[in-house]
Design goal:
It contains six helices and 16 strands. By secondary structure, it is of the alpha+beta class. It has a three-stranded mixed beta sheet with strand order 1-14-13, covered by helices on one side. Strands 2-3-4 form a three-stranded antiparallel beta sheet.
């Protein structure tokens, strides 16, 4: 979430580039049944994934993109089984890339997102040096079970500064070690201000915002309207009041000030997916 991306004020349109399988490609197993991720996809050819469910490249791309936007590093099949339960089979990234017909740009986006997710969820324990996964995202105090199982003193460390834990737990902001801080929050609280030139009567607002849905860092280029499109989760929100565009537009348009005013600097990373 620490990566800053410039927002755009255009609505997402993932169907602008239609993708379809080559029916003569022998590397795919084609099946004569509907897309089992999105039955409304209208591509003529449907291929069978390793789990046995039929997909089209468009539905697979959209589904896996949505998983990434929620911070998921595993691609799992959402198709329903005859008993009404989700399949849940895990697909490898190479399989997803091939069956989704990912473009160079899409592959680059997927791989960067995966890298960010893994970096946020996996770190080396400072005690045993084993990579461990953080599952409780609202608590920085991490207890390494590998240290405990190996007979070593249980290693409780801070996920943020990677030093032995100090202070009370659980905590989501910092431990009591000196200089333990969240660099992303420091950016939100310490960035400069901008004035959106195309918004009539605009007041200065922070130059960097966290998407109110997924927490992605977004900058505004100052020359467009006040709404931006989050490049991670494709939500359109107002850069000034931080409300979703649909809510903000109930009382003002994209080129006039928000009735609720400019939202203050954010003090927490949103994660509402």
């Amino acid at each position: 979430m620490g990566e800053r991306v410039r927002g755009h004020d255009k609505e997402p349109n993932e169907r602008s580039v239609e993708k379809a399988y080559d029916p003569l490609d022998p590397s795919f197993k084609f099946v004569d049944r509907q897309d089992e991720i999105d039955p409304f996809q209208d591509e003529s050819s449907r291929a069978e994934m390793s789990c046995g469910h039929a997909v089209t490249p468009g539905s697979l791309t959209g589904w896996c993109r949505s998983l990434l936007s929620k911070g998921e590093s595993k691609f799992t099949c959402p198709a329903l089984q005859p008993d009404g339960k989700k399949c849940g089979a895990e697909w490898s990234y190479p399989e997803v890339r091939r069956f989704a017909l990912l473009t160079v740009e899409e592959s680059d986006h997927f791989e960067k997102e995966l890298a960010c997710i893994v970096a946020a969820r996996f770190k080396a324990c400072p005690g045993c040096k084993t990579y461990v996964e953080r599952e409780t995202l609202d608590n920085l105090c991490f207890q390494c079970n590998i240290c405990k199982e190996s007979g070593k003193p249980t290693m409780q460390f801070c996920w943020q500064c990677l030093r032995p834990w100090k202070g009370r737990a659980p905590r989501s902001d910092r431990c009591d070690n000196d200089d333990c801080s969240d660099k992303v929050l420091e950016l939100l609280q310490g960035c400069g201000t901008i004035t959106l030139s195309k918004v009539v009567g605009a007041e200065p607002c922070p130059s960097v915002r966290a998407c109110p849905t997924c927490g992605q860092m977004v900058e505004h280029d100052k020359t467009n309207c006040k709404t931006v499109l989050c490049p991670r989760c494709n939500v359109v929100f107002c850069f000034m009041c931080l409300k979703l565009k649909t809510k903000c537009s109930e009382t003002s348009n994209s080129f006039t000030v928000c009735t609720s005013g400019v939202a203050p600097r954010q003090t927490a990373i949103p994660n509402n997916n």
